[in-house]
């Protein structure tokens, strides 16, 4: 699994990241993976949606915005980004689903009494 991190995209800060990956096997080129954009809303005390299911080989561009205060988005054993408070931008995480399995994510910034309930998962299937 390869996880790339791109941070804040908002009215005050702009970050443009370009990643070019060329893969070849033997004498031929491998085809590009499919790409999917998923919008997640963080709000006390949940992510919506909290479950994302994709087939193996998919690259997911996850756009996370808050409807209230600052939150965090951390893939367990992966990147951690801060989600700016309402109307202050969007955090973007790119997840490459190269292996079948379940990958948990959680809020990494204390946001109140229900903080521990802010969890979700990315399910990678065949």
Describe the structure.
This protein has strands at 2-9, 24-25, 28-29, 34-43, 46-48, 51-55, 58-66, 71-75, 80-83, 90-97, 101-106, 119-125. It has 126 residues and is an all-beta fold. The protein has a single domain (2-125), classed as Sandwich (Immunoglobulin-like), CATH 2.60.40.420. A hairpin with a 2-residue loop joins β2 (24-25) and β3. Residues 1-31 have low confidence and may be disordered.
How many strands, what sense, and barrel or not for the largest sheet? 5 strands, mixed
Q: Name the poorly predicted regions.
A: 1-31
Order of helices and strands: EEEEEEEEEEEE
Total domain units: 1
In CATH, the architecture is: Sandwich
User: CATH superfamily name?
Assistant: Cupredoxins -  blue copper proteins
Q: What fraction of the residues are assigned to beta strands by DSSP?
A: over 45%
**Order of strands in the sheet with most strands:** 1-10-7-4-5
Mean pLDDT: 80
Helicity level, as a percent range? under 10%
* CATH topology type: Immunoglobulin-like
CATH class: Mainly Beta
| Quaternary organization | single chain
Give the tally of β-strands: 12
Total helices: the number is 0
Distance between the first and last residues' Cα: 15 Å
Instruction: Sum up the overall morphology in one term.
Output: globular
């Amino acid at each position: 699994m390869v996880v790339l991190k791109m941070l804040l995209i908002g009215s005050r800060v702009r970050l443009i990241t370009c990643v070019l990956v060329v893969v070849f096997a033997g004498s031929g080129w491998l085809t590009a993976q499919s790409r999917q954009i998923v919008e997640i809303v963080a709000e006390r005390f949940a992510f919506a949606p909290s479950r994302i299911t994709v087939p193996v080989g998919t690259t997911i561009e996850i756009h996370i915005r808050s409807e209230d205060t600052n939150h965090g988005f951390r893939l367990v054993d992966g990147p951690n980004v801060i989600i700016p408070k309402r109307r202050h931008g969007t955090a973007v995480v790119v997840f490459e689903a190269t292996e079948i399995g379940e990958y948990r994510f959680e809020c990494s910034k204390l946001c109140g009494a229900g903080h521990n309930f802010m969890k979700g998962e990315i399910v990678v299937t065949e």
